[in-house]
Specification:
heterodimer; A: 300 residues; mainly alpha; ABC transporter involved in vitamin B12 uptake, BtuC; 12 helices; 3% strand; globular; B: 349 residues; 2 strands
Chain lengths: 300, 349
């Protein structure tokens, strides 16, 4: 561990490499966290199966790529498939959770997460998978720093999708309805907005976003049926750090988390990377609580 | 649920009958001994979860942390009293070099289980002041994170076998059937857990827990020392979870860091399911829930090869969405007319 730290101090280029890698994966986290913030803000539900949506989107790409489809074309397919899944899940389960006790929604979505991860493990096998893109890398500083082209592509696509979603939310009528429902559901309902349809759209849209994020991630990073919960925790952490409705905050927090994780993975060793994510979550929540306490504020 | 705690002669009789049945069970049905032991431990898990989750309203998703900690501490103590733990795990616990004779094995258990309870209680005390100030989603997700982080960390420590797990000491052959011993240990633990919780909930401390659940800020304003009560309840629950984990580790014999010890997707969520299925926030509920759950699990397990966890996940969703009041809650609402009904909740403005 200390040895790794010394290596890092002696080779600044390696540090740069870690920062770049962290930022590139951070965009995937940002997109998934954006979806979680959306669902949380609109329906009040913390969607614990968020990470499983990401994994499922990734598996769609991997499967289609194995059938010979270019991975990038599989992204819209994954988004559409997850939109459908989100729609079905909303109609069967989530609709009953809106306005109910937070414990029920956390437990029910955790249950969905378990079902999805177990089904994925049964159907696809519990192994690391990746949809090979066949793209090369760019090298800088005499080959000391390398940037895989596919990672850059994933980064750009995630940012573009996030921007498109923001445009949808701010410019379209449906986006307006979503925001109105988030602010004041009863007033929105009085004004003729079908809040239930809005909840459904929000949830399905979130699933689609996660599907796209996962589909993109699967081109550059390995995915695993049991990797979902880590994504959920990352999303939750990012949203907590940024605060609901703070889009720029989500992006910065996600990129920061990506960089922190990439350094932790290098310094502590890859086997502790997941532990690091969860430990960081606890640290973030404790810190948040401490700050609230100083202001004598408690949030339910 | 105050009335459920008072002892009428009929209830006392039922209690004695249940206890007698529990004591006699291994003699009557030795074939189901390990399942019965597991059931008793599940009762402890569900009760301990419910003390904090149901009675106090702090819905922890990471109680498995204390179970796993107890498992590891007990195994380490059981081995460490007589051998070098590092060498033991390196040799995968087996071989001829690490033989435990009967006194050694029993001493190990006698020291290991209390040590496990103590370690879990200590961990709960240390974590409590940090974690129990969070509420709602934050507490739920934070505890979920704690449980998984513990598993990942345990999987990275070679001294306790890292990812390939650790074996509990091999019971000596001259000790006969160790399963019976474990069964009675579990029975004693479950009985003392139920009895001490029944007593606790009849004291002002129990009222304080319920007050915290119903409205923590008001309880604090009324002079309830909420923080102390929360930490105390968590420490008590953790001690029972740790002891139960220690016995569970000896029952399954093999401690995998993420699949048995810190198994958030199985035991960790099952204990919530059991408490919820039986009736959250009641003393009887978790016990009923554990019995129903274990029976269902054992009866259907063989028919669902490979799909058990999927089925259990579906069960979790179904119970959380459609049956949140649980069996005891349902029965009280349907047949318990004399206990009255809760006032209808006011519509939020």
């Amino acid at each position: 561990m200390i040895g790794n730290l010394l290596i890092l101090l002696e080779a600044p280029a390696l540090g740069l490499q870690l920062v770049i890698d962290g930022i590139l994966i951070g965009a995937v986290f940002a997109l998934a966290a954006y979806g979680m913030a959306l669902v949380w803000g609109v329906t009040g539900i913390v969607n614990v199966c968020q990470g499983e949506f990401v994994m499922l989107g990734g598996f769609v790409t991997v499967l289609l790529a194995e059938q010979g489809m270019p991975p990038l074309l599989a992204v819209p397919v994954a988004a559409a498939a997850l939109y459908l899944l989100g729609w079905i899940l909303f109609q069967t389960v989530i609709v009953h959770l809106i306005g109910r006790d937070m414990f029920n929604s956390v437990l029910a979505t955790f249950g969905i997460a378990i079902v999805l991860q177990q089904v994925m493990a049964r159907v696809f096998g519990a192994a690391d998978r990746i949809a090979e893109s066949g793209l090369g890398s760019w090298f800088f500083f005499d080959g000391l720093v390398g940037v895989a082209k596919v990672k850059a592509l994933v980064f750009a696509a995630c940012i573009a999708l996030g921007a498109a979603l923001t445009l949808f939310l701010t410019r379209s009528r449906q986006g307006q309805a979503i925001r109105a429902t988030a602010q004041e559901p009863r007033a929105a309902a009085t004004l003729g907005i079908e809040t239930r349809a809005v909840y459904r759209l929000t949830y399905a849209l979130n699933a689609a976003i996660c599907g796209a994020a996962g589909a993109l991630a699967a081109m550059a990073y390995t995915i695993h049926p049991y990797g979902g919960l880590t994504y959920t925790i990352r999303c939750f952490m990012i949203v907590v750090v940024a605060g609901l409705g703070n889009l720029a905050g989500v992006l910065w927090a996600a990129l920061g988390l990506g960089v922190a994780e990439s350094f932790a993975g290098f310094i502590l060793g890859a086997q502790y990377q997941i532990a690091f994510v969860f430990a960081l979550l606890v640290a973030v929540l404790v810190l948040r609580n401490w700050r609230l306490k100083r202001k004598r504020l408690y949030l339910q | 649920m105050r009335s459920a705690l008072s002892l009428t002669p009929a209830r006392l009789l039922l209690l004695i009958a249940l206890l007698a049945a529990g004591v006699a069970a291994p003699l009557v049905a030795p074939a189901y001994q390990s399942q019965a032991t597991e059931l008793l431990l599940f009762i402890v898990f569900a009760l301990a979860w419910d003390l904090v989750g149901g009675q106090m309203g702090y819905n922890s998703f990471g109680n498995v942390l204390f179970v796993g900690l107890g498992m590891y501490v007990s195994a380490i103590v059981q081995v460490g009293l007589f051998y070098n733990v590092g060498l033991y795990t390196e040799a995968k616990g087996g071989g001829t070099a690490f033989v435990f004779d009967a006194p050694q094995f029993l001493t190990g258990l006698a020291v290991g289980i209390p040590a496990a309870a103590l370690a879990s209680a200590l961990a709960a005390w240390l974590l409590g002041s940090l974690v129990l100030t969070m509420r709602g989603h934050y507490f739920a997700i934070c505890t979920l994170g704690l449980g998984i982080a513990a598993g990942q960390i345990a999987a990275g420590i070679p001294w306790i076998g890292a990812g390939s797990g650790m074996l509990t000491p091999n019971p000596p052959a001259d000790l006969g059937n160790v399963g019976v011993l474990l069964y009675y240990l579990a029975l004693g633990l479950a009985a003392s857990c139920a009895a001490s919780f029944a007593w606790l909930l009849s004291t002002p401390f129990g009222l304080a827990l319920n007050a915290i659940r119903d409205d923590e800020d008001k309880a604090e304003a009324m002079g309830v020392r909420t923080h102390a009560a929360k930490v105390t309840a968590w420490v008590i629950a953790a001690a029972f979870l740790g002891a139960a984990g220690a016995i569970y580790g000896n029952l399954v014999r093999f401690i995998d860091p993420t699949e048995t010890a810190f198994a958030g997707a199985t035991i960790g969520v099952w204990m919530i399911l059991m408490a919820l299925l039986g009736g959250k926030g009641t003393l009887l509920g978790p016990i009923v829930g554990a019995v129903v759950f274990q029976l269902t699990k054992e009866l259907t397990w063989t028919y669902l090869i490979g799909w058990q966890r999927v089925a259990l996940g579906l069960l979790i969703v179904a119970v959380a969405v459609f049956f949140p009041e649980g069996i005891v809650g349902f029965v009280t609402e349907r047949f318990g007319g004399k206990r009255g009904r809760p006032a209808p909740e006011e519509q939020a403005p």
